[in-house]
Each structure stands twice: as structure tokens, then as C-alpha cells.
Write a structure and sequence with these properties.
single chain; alpha+beta; Glutaredoxin
Length: about 270
């Protein structure tokens, strides 16, 4: 059973993700959708011409959630946020569990493989939706950030374990736990478990040898990090990926104002002085 601190952390992460998804939808609808524009390319320039404003659109909204993923965001809250979009006339909204008969029919009919999901039914062709997949009578927002439930695998995707590898003898080395805030806030990664390991321990020595680690402190993420496109787009600059999918931070050249240890030279490197 999760303790109070863990429950508060889960609640904070869920609320943060709810806000992120709601903002994404609101921006794509309310801001990008106030007017339709058409770019007319000529030999000299590109002109933007207004070709029509968006009128109120009647829609039905269905959110599919699952109790199997308590750390997944609350799609019901996203539905509430969508009710504030001025030109969305929500005639009906439903929140159903993936285990219900209605949800199972929708999942089968629309080939949904990720839960939570959001279905908008109506004349969605009039809406400037982004991140949605078109269906016969509307659109589906199902390509949501992890963690989510993969229905086919019956598994929660995106639970990343974090290992902090440090050297207790390096008192001046930077606090490796700083990586956690960056990974969670900047990249939206859900950290399921954390472990601290010193390179002097047997396990620490194994990690150094296995992943050919030459600079510490560093952080290692389990292979589930691959499920986050946001971090994958930058990982070539930030680190390497082991044969088992483990992501190891090696981007010390990209960091400033830190102190770390070079294991090959046994020297303490202070980037503040470079």
C-alpha cells in the first residue's frame, strides 16, 4: 500500500498531466481554431487569407478510463476542461471504465489500444483538432503520453525505474538527484522507483563495467524510457543506450556549473572553472 507521501506524489503527477493534456486540447481548439486561414503561395511571398470563422459545433464526448492505472491522468477532468471551450457545444459527456460493455464495444469498433482515451463525436471536421485520429463519426485522442494501459499487452506502459550512481568519496560532486526534477518536469517521465548505488559497492562496480561508465555521478533509466518521445528526441546528445535498453546519462559536455569525477583519470572536473 502506498504511503501518504507516495499518494501525494501520484496526485501531483496526475494533476500535472491533466493540465498538460487540457492545455494541449484547449490551445488546438480555442486558439488555433478561432479562424480558418489559408496560405496562398505566390512567386514572391506567402499571403494569409481568412476564409471563415468557426461556428459552435455540437459534439458528444466519451472518456474511457481504467481503474487498473491509478497513476494515469484523469480523463474525466480533461472533459471538464473542454467544457470551457466557447464554440464546443457539448450535448452529452460520459466517463466510462474500460471494463464496461459500452467501453469494450467502442474499443473494438475504433481499434483503440491505449487507455485512457477520449472520443469526440460530431462534425469534428469543422474543428482544428491536433493529436486526434479521425473516425467515421468523429475523432479520438488516444496517443496520450505515458503512463497508459496497452490493452493488447494488458500492461501499464511508461513506468521508469531510476538508478543514481555516485561516488561517496567525491564530496564536491554535484547532486545526482537533480536529474529527477528535469526528467519529470521537462520530459514528463513517470519515475516509478528510485535506487541509490555507490560505485564502491559490488552492484556499482558491475554497472560501471557493464555500461562502460567513465564519469560519475550519473543516472540510469530502465528501457521504459523509450516510450517517451520527448526524451528520445534529445537522447543522442544527453546519453547512450545499452544493449538491454538502459539509458545512461553521459552528456557532461552539455552541462555547466557542475562538479563530477572522471573515472579514467581519477580527476575531479569543475566545469565552473572552464
Amino acid at each position: 500500500m502506498a504511503n501518504k507521501k507516495d499518494e501525494e506524489t501520484i496526485k501531483l503527477k496526475k494533476n500535472t498531466l491533466i493540465i498538460a493534456i487540457a492545455v494541449l486540447i484547449a490551445i488546438s481548439l480555442a486558439l488555433a481554431g478561432l479562424y480558418y486561414y489559408k496560405n496562398i503561395k505566390t512567386s514572391k511571398k506567402v499571403e494569409t487569407k481568412e476564409i471563415g470563422s468557426i461556428e459552435s459545433v455540437d459534439v458528444l464526448i466519451t472518456a474511457i478510463i481504467t481503474k487498473k492505472c491509478p497513476i494515469c491522468f484523469d480523463m474525466a477532468q480533461v472533459v471538464q476542461e473542454m467544457k470551457t471551450v466557447p464554440f464546443l457545444n457539448i450535448k452529452q459527456s460520459n466517463v466510462i471504465d474500460a471494463s464496461s460493455r459500452e467501453a469494450k464495444e467502442l474499443i473494438k469498433t475504433h481499434n483503440i489500444n491505449k487507455i485512457p482515451a477520449l472520443i469526440i463525436q460530431g462534425d469534428t471536421g469543422k474543428l482544428p483538432l491536433k493529436g486526434f485520429r479521425d473516425i467515421k463519426d468523429g475523432a479520438i485522442l488516444e496517443d496520450v503520453p505515458p503512463p497508459y494501459v496497452n490493452i493488447e499487452k494488458q500492461k501499464v506502459i511508461g513506468l521508469v525505474n531510476l538508478t543514481y550512481l555516485s561516488d561517496e568519496s567525491c564530496k564536491e560532486c554535484y547532486d545526482v538527484k537533480q536529474h529527477k526534477d528535469v526528467l519529470e518536469i521537462a520530459f514528463g517521465i513517470y519515475i516509478a522507483n528510485e535506487e541509490e548505488i555507490d560505485i564502491s559497492s559490488e552492484k556499482g562496480k558491475e554497472l560501471v563495467e557493464k555500461y562502460e561508465i567513465t564519469k560519475i555521478p550519473t543516472v540510469l533509466m530502465t528501457s521504459e524510457a523509450k516510450d517517451y518521445p520527448s526524451i528520445q528526441m534529445m537522447w543522442e546528445q544527453l546519453g547512450i543506450v545499452g544493449e538491454d535498453g538502459t539509458h545512461i546519462f553521459t552528456g557532461f559536455d552539455m552541462t555547466k556549473d557542475i562538479v563530477y569525477k572522471d573515472l579514467e583519470t581519477n580527476q575531479i572536473i569543475n566545469t565552473r572553472e572552464e
